[in-house]
Amino acid sequence: MIHSKIIGFVILFFSFFCFENAETFIPGARYAHSVTLVDNKLYFFGGQISEINQGQELIHIYDQLFYLDVSSSFNIESPSWTDLTASKRVPVRSSWSTSSVGFGIQSSNNHDKSTIYLIGGLMYLINQNALVTDVIYAFDTKSQQWVLPVINGTGPNRRRGVQAVSDNTGKIYYFGGNSDYITTGSPTANVTRYNTLNILDTAQLSWSIGSTIDAPSPREGYSATLFINLIIFIGGRENSYNGQPFSLVNISQIPVYDTQSSKWYLTTVGGANVSNRHSHSAILAQNDLIIIYGGVSEGGVPAPQQLIALNITSSPYQWIVPTTSYLSLYAMPPPLSLHSATSVGKYMIIAFGNITNITRSASLSIYLLDTTNWTWVTTFQPSNPINTVNIVVIGAIFGIAFFILIIIAFIVLYIKLRRRNSPNFPPTKTSPPSSSRNSISNQFPNPQEIMPESYDVRTTYTRPRSKPNPLLKPYSTLANT
After folding, report:
1. Where would one find the signal peptide in this protein (predicted)?
2. Alpha carbons within 13 A on the beta-carbon side of 224
């Protein structure tokens, strides 16, 4: 029957509506990626994985762009990723790059810090094993568009091992790093480390160089954290003078750059005895502690104390080795390097990275540290859950209203089709009851009383042709209502 087809159509529609987004995006394992937080969205760019094939190391570099919405709660086993790669992928395959937020390039948002600048690192053509000549790309999070910015001044050459930070004035600080045969594409290129501080003014789209007086030694693989107007550089690798490829920077001798006075300072740190490291991560927590996770120590082994903290409110600064707890075993991260860490509310969100104690093994997980009690947790709760609840409630109301409208439409269609297929619809025409002429004259006025004299009462009365019934629509029309 026709109404059975309609039922099937409605079921098919609901199946499509409810399950079209059932396929969940899960990013693959990676390390040396870039991450930046803008408007409650944690954007991830690129990254790479490596494997050994027939004795050769093969590296796959991603062009993926996806984000994690931190305005709503999630569990680390099933975070709600949103993939933008299909339409907004990174214009190049990118790894070892650094990213930081600045003012927009478009005139409509050039005073809104909503544009992410992806700088340096390895940038390859999408379908070719060739480095691009451009060193910087910009992603406008408002318009969801990539822009190749035209910047005045001389910027840095292609480097890796850099951690950029930005301040409230829209300036991005890009210190040190190294160039080698990978960043140059030349097999004969030597490793060169830098100690220049390149400054990108995103409001003016211009490069400049910070003070070189008392600048620290050339280095890469450090962490950089902005505290008010101070950039605090921790750890990393520097040039070696004993014939080794590099030496680890003394983690208790910390260079600090003052963005207001444009001066360098060297701070000696007290407190706990912590190990030197490179390729670690660092965040500024709500309690004004710089929390560091992971890193590689001497001999390429994981740093002995994976989690350490720097108290920057004391004078001198003090190292702390917190005692942590965990809610479950899978909440604790493995030893990591070349991962990312972001401060969101009371949480330190650690993502991906190289599992340092397993050769060429990358992580595909994220981890949460509650910095208020040093507990590794499994569930993220946003700092402003009221707004999140309101959004969920509004969405649920609209969803229920839409569902009710569909049900009502289905019921109406079903009733119409049932009436259409009923043997008594349209109603069967019946003949008037057999009666005398007098009985008919008793039911109707005398035509001569209401008609002009010229009107011929013997004219045959014809029943008016029935108008089209608006309820009797073709099936094709019903299916599209």
Report:
1. 1-22
2. 26
Q: Report, as an integer, the average pLDDT of 125-132.
A: 93
Give every CB contact of residue 120 below 8 A, 6+ residues apart in sequence. Answer: 96, 97, 98, 135, 136, 156, 158, 159, 160, 162, 174, 177
The number of residues in the chain equals 481
For residue 394, which amino acid is it? I
How many angstroms separate the CA atoms of 384 and 405, rounded?
33
- How far, in Å, CA of 361 to CA of 28, rounded? 12
How large is the C-alpha radius of gyration of the chain? Answer: 35
Average pLDDT over the chain, rounded to an integer: 83
The residues, any chain, with a CB within 8 Å of residue 159's CB and separated by 6 or more, are 120, 121, 176, 177, 178, 179, 183, 194, 220
Q: Note the pTM of the prediction, 2 decimals.
A: 0.77
Torsion of CA 180, 183, 189, 194, to 10 degrees: -40
Instruction: With both helix axes pointing from N to C terminus, report the angle between 2-19 and 385-420 in degrees, rounded to the nearest 10.
Output: 170
Report whether 266 contacts 216 (CB < 8 A): yes
Phi, then psi, of 56 in degrees rounded to 5: -115, 145
Question: Buried b / exposed e across 376-399, counting CB within 10 Å, b at 16+?
Answer: bbeebebeeeeebeeeeeeeeeee
In this structure, what token pair is assigned to residue 318?
């003090």
User: How does pLDDT run across 247-256, given as a tens digit for each residue?
Assistant: 999 999 999 9
Residue 397's Cα: distance from chain center in Å?
26
pLDDT digit string (tens) for 7-48? Answer: 454 444 444 444 444 468 999 999 999 999 999 999 999 999
